[in-house]
Amino acid sequence: MYAYLIVGLLLICGLTYTIRTKFVQIRRFPDMFKYIADKKPVKRKKSLSSFQALMISTGSRVGTGNIAGIATAIIMGGPGAVFWMWVLAIIGASSAFIESTLAQIWKRRSPYGAYRGGPAYYIEQGLGKKWLGIVFAVSLILAFGFGFNALQSFNTTSSFDYYFIETGLNLNQVHFFIGIILVAITALIIFGGMKAIGNVSSIIVPIMALLYMALALFIVFSNINCMGNVFAAIFDNAFSLQSILGGGAGMALLYGTKRGLLSNEAGMGSAPNAAACASVSHPVKQGLIQALSAYIDTFLICTSSAFMVLVFCVTNPDIAYQYNGMPLVQMTLHNSIGEAGIHFMTIAIFFFAFSSIIGNYSYAESNFKFITTNRKALKYFRILCLFPVFFGTLSNLDLAWGLADIFMGIMAVLNILSLFFLGKWALLALKDYDKQRKQGLDPVFYADDYPELPKTECWHKPEKIIQ
Predict the structure, then answer these.
(1) Which of 160, 289, 292, 302 is found 20 to 30 A from 27 (Cα to Cα)?
(2) Rg (Cα) of the chain, in Å, rounded?
(3) What pLDDT digit, counting tens, does each position of 265-309 carry?
């Protein structure tokens, strides 16, 4: 499913909308930064800012796959995988733009001032097929709310095993107590609603991302004399059959493509659930910001992991290729900064995994509200979502992880096919945005100006827009 169908659909979708948007992810790159700190045009207390929505989606994207997954891609595909990861991130950013713009167009407003939306919502309103939206919503809840959150909680607790292995303590008991603490913290946040999730994510994600990148820069500059070899290895392996560190160009393309498309989740249908929560004056603004999230994931976090690992591979080729995944990353840090590297990675894994837990839950809640808005049912749903977080600390739950992959595959296929049918409306919004930008205006979108657009709940002229 992932090696052929999903990667192929993501690639086709990304290339299609890269061309149809005239490379919006490149030509409007400066605008992405312009709107990060944009003030909310409709100042409802529980609505999220563009930055908060960006941090929720980035927090969900950034996990152990950005660390261990990159190491695996390099070992299995060669250093050239990093180059193709960069290329596919640029292509995939166009899909991220389209799906997040659509999520904004067909978002809904709750009675309490918050917005919600995502693929289930634009499938229902744009395509007129609620049943298909429900299939998507159920698939996402099973994948993110249950499966992947169990995996992330397992990664969170396992990151502490290093400190207890030699103490003689029973690791299952250690995991049990850590699980209790993790569930309590998670409950405190998710029962606070989307606003609380946005507030926590806007603190954890940027701090941990900056610290992780600072560590990578320290390792790079400490080995600056090796960086010429690192870049030579990347580009040689990306285009030639023989490379400095081994691996064929075909494998580099395969693993780089998979890592570039799957790590940033562009087009997979997850991030639009966060994008819809933002209060903005034009759907395209949040579409651009979510395209930036794909760049942050790949060019900052994944590239930081890649450079650290490649420095180790270049300086210690006889040792490096004996490891893979997280052990390779741990050896890389231990070799560069000693025991402190293990401590830092433990902290990084904990916070990256925890930000994924609350980000994944926010996606699940948005889709649960698509199925029912009953507040009592929502309370029970929140309690139910705490169980995978707890049981994930006690076992890696291989079956749950495998099923989550399948359900994520289902939602990805449904989302990509929906983008092919509904993408024209995102292009219409982009045309409206480009027109206003050329006139020197701060773009404001009104659905009333486009009677051909399927009915939307928001974006109507009677709604007061505060400039």
Answers:
(1) 302
(2) 22
(3) 788 888 898 888 888 889 999 999 999 988 888 888 889 888 988
Token look-up 């099923």 returns: 403
Own/partner pairs, 207-212, CB within 8 angstroms, 24+ separation: 208/348, 208/351, 208/352, 208/355, 209/58, 209/62, 209/296, 209/300, 209/301, 211/344, 211/348, 212/301, 212/304, 212/348
DSSP output for 95-137 = HHHHHHHHHHHT-EE-TTS-EE--HHHHHHHHH--HHHHHHHH
Beta-ladder partners of 115: 109
Q: Are 378 and 114 in contact (CB under 8 A)?
A: no
At position 425, the amino acid (one-letter code) is W
Q: What is the mean pLDDT of the chain?
A: 83
**Cα separation of 71 and 209, whole Å?**
18
Question: Please, what sign has the CA dihedral across residues 46, 50, 51, 52?
Answer: positive
Q: Tens digit of pLDDT for each residue in 222-276?
A: 889 888 988 988 888 777 654 434 444 456 666 666 666 666 778 888 889 888 8
CA–CA dist 194, 283 (Å, integer): 20
pTM of this structure: 0.85
Please state the separation of Cα 118 from the chain's center in Å.
14
Strand partners, 108: 116
The phi, psi pair for 342, rounded to 5°, reads -65, -40
Distances (CA, A) of 298 to 86, 173, 225, 350: 7, 37, 24, 20
Strand pairing class (108-109; 115-116): antiparallel
